[in-house]
Automatic annotation (TrEMBL):
Pfam families according to UniProt: PepSY_TM
Sorted UniProt keywords: Membrane, Transmembrane, Transmembrane helix
Composition-biased stretches (Pro residues): 579-592
Protein's recorded name: Peptidase
Region named Disordered: 573-592
InterPro entries referenced in this protein's UniProt entry, alphabetically: PepSY-ass_TM (IPR005625)
Residues passing through the membrane, by range: 20-40, 144-166, 193-213, 341-363, 392-414, 536-558
Source organism superkingdom: Bacteria
Length: 592
């Protein structure tokens, strides 16, 4: 029995050490993830443009793509997402398209999925983007994502040690001794929250550990082992057959072809090609909600409508299947909107469990009244708290120092979502063989760091193999990016003569000359903050207040536990130093 008792005591100490030393960071990560789970729904409630009245009508993919092309003629449509996809699971969700603009900004464009009508647009930055980025990487780049995923290990250990330590956990699920004093009350609340949220905590911890493993695989440039065999793209050898300006088909025709080849597929996403060799990408769900939409997808030829390849989630290998299963499990959207609500509730329970554990430790550390009296006039030198509390003070200080870095990175990260590039400056309209191209330069278009863009004005997709800018030293600088608007970074003074060079897939070369325009002042956004509905700032502000308040409460609890334990240790040392009473002597009341 003594061995079993020592084992339980070790589990208890390990559980307490992780809570006191790592709990503050875990709490902030869990709380932000809880809000991130329903963040798209929060945006929908804030912004009426993201809402549409659901009705029994087919989704008009062609109309939505045509609307985006008409509303943003210089933009690059990065994909259209219909209601029912991962983050559009609430009933009144509008369709959304991500559009990259010449200013460098990405806009979220909201559409009526049944008519294709434009409902509005916002900055890429909103509630969803803030909480997804904060939860995933704390606005601290690679260091942040490494730390967040690494914290899944102590979360797993904390959940398991708590469960193994407590006896009679089934009874603890329904035990709440509300009127038996703060120690028992908070002990029951902490145990109950931990047990009710145990399965959820294990799911979150295990998927987080998988994210950490993904990082390690990616760091070793072996991410391919987690991915399925890629679907075919357009055969580049056939591109000369389609001429200089092959036309894309209406988006609805691609969807019809995909569904004919994959009848069980409910289409959620359609992404048009960015270059002639890209296939049209279509994904969705086919009866397996435990995987991301991308697990079931179809590639379609952009110029013929031929199906190039089909991927079914059931055909994925174990590694690829787990990769596509991690997100739905981690954020709860495998069960639609109801699953996300349940995950939010359990996330709050888990966050409460972390905070209540620290408060419980403070209550446990509170000395009895006679011990407190003994300790009031005692000399505290040389006596400190137990080892777990010694580390907690240092861990709290390190965590606070890191939160200062996170705060600075968060402000900077939000400001980075504001448009930074100025308007495009015309450098000339060129006719290079069958291609008509507008050459533009991003303001301020300084000679040492100019961004030059070639915007094709011909109908159809420009079907070229290589495109480059030849500078004054006859150096060819490759242009890359979307086929209709490739870019290049060049160094050239205003007035320098440059050449645009195009090479088609049948090896024809076309050139046309233009001059660098004069530099202009950058027309950076008047505000350093991204354009987003005001409600987004209120939500972020409320999160900051709650987080800051929780941190202050946490520090107060740790300091109080430190003081209480110090009093306990002092009193214990004082009693040990007192001489033992002679045999048969009567002890005073309250003496131990």
């Amino acid at each position: 029995m003594s061995g079993l008792g020592n084992w339980r005591k070790t589990l208890f100490r390990l559980h307490g050490w992780m809570g006191l030393n790592l709990g503050l960071l875990l709490f902030v990560i869990c709380l932000s993830g809880t809000v991130a789970t329903l963040s798209y729904e929060i945006d929908g409630w804030i912004n009426p443009d993201q809402q549409v009245e659901p009705r029994d009508a087919p989704i008009d993919w062609t109309a939505m793509h045509d609307t985006v092309a008409e509303a943003f003629p210089d933009g690059q449509n990065l994909g259209v997402y219909a209601p029912g996809s991962a983050y559009l699971s609430f009933q009144h969700a509008a369709a959304v398209s991500y559009v990259s603009l010449p200013t460098g900004e990405t806009r979220k464009v909201y559409l009526d999925p049944y008519t294709g009508a434009l409902q509005g647009s916002t900055s890429f930055f909103n509630t969803q983007r803030f909480f997804r980025t904060f939860h995933r990487r704390l606005f601290d780049g690679n260091r942040g994502i490494f730390l967040v995923t690494l914290m899944s290990l102590p979360m797993l250990l904390s959940a398991l040690t708590g469960w193994l330590f407590y006896k009679g956990w089934l009874k603890q699920m329904v035990t709440l001794r509300w009127n038996r004093g703060p120690r028992l009350r908070w002990s029951d609340l902490h145990k109950g929250a931990g047990i009710w949220g145990l399965l959820f905590a294990l799911i979150i911890a295990l998927t987080g550990i998988f994210y950490f493993a993904e990082l390690m695989v990616l760091a070793n440039e072996r991410y391919d082992i987690l991915q399925p065999e890629p679907l075919p793209q357009v055969d580049k050898a056939t591109l000369p057959d389609f001429g200089p300006h092959p036309e894309l088909l209406p988006a609805g025709e691609y969807v019809a072809a995909a569904q004919a080849a994959f009848p069980d597929l409910t289409v959620h996403t359609v992404r048009m090609p960015h270059t002639p060799s890209d296939a049209v990408y279509i994904d969705g769900q086919a009866g397996n909600p435990l995987t991301r939409d991308r697990a079931s997808k179809v590639h379609v030829h952009p110029f013929t409508g031929e199906v190039l390849g089909v991927q079914r989630s059931g055909d994925l290998g174990p590694a690829a299947f787990i990769t596509d299963m991690a997100d739905p499990l981690h954020f709860g959207y495998f069960a639609g909107f109801g699953g996300k609500v349940a995950w939010t509730v359990f996330g709050l329970v888990l966050s409460f469990s972390i905070l209540s554990g620290t408060y419980l430790w403070m209550v446990r550390s509170r000395p009895r009244s006679h011990i407190k009296k003994e300790a009031q006039n005692a000399d505290p030198s040389g006596w400190g708290p137990m080892p777990m509390l010694r580390g907690a003070i240092g861990a709290a200080a390190l965590t606070l120092a890191y939160f200062v870095i996170v705060s600075i990175g968060t402000v900077t990260g939000i400001q980075d979502r504001a448009p930074e590039r100025g308007p495009e400056i015309e450098a000339g309209t060129l006719q290079a063989g069958p291609f008509r191209v507008d050459m533009r330069c991003q303001a301020p278009c300084r000679g040492d760091e100019a961004t030059v863009t070639a915007r094709f004005r011909s109908a159809g997709m420009p079907n070229v193999r290589d495109i480059s800018v030849v500078d004054t030293e006859s150096t060819a600088i490759p242009m890359s990016g979307a086929a209709r608007a490739p870019q290049a970074e060049i160094s050239a003074a205003p007035g320098d003569s440059l050449r645009l060079r195009l090479t088609t897939h049948d090896d024809n070369v076309y050139t046309a000359g233009f001059a660098m325009p004069a530099a202009q002042e950058s027309a950076r956004s008047a505000s350093p903050w991204p354009d987003t509905p005001s409600g987004v700032w209120w939500v972020i502000g409320a999160f900051v207040v709650v987080t800051a308040g929780s941190i202050l409460v946490w520090l107060w609890m740790v300091m109080r536990a430190f003081q209480f334990e110090r009093q306990r240790q002092i009193a214990k040392a004082q009693r040990a130093a007192q001489p033992s009473p002679p045999p048969g002597a009567t002890l005073p009341p309250g003496a131990s």
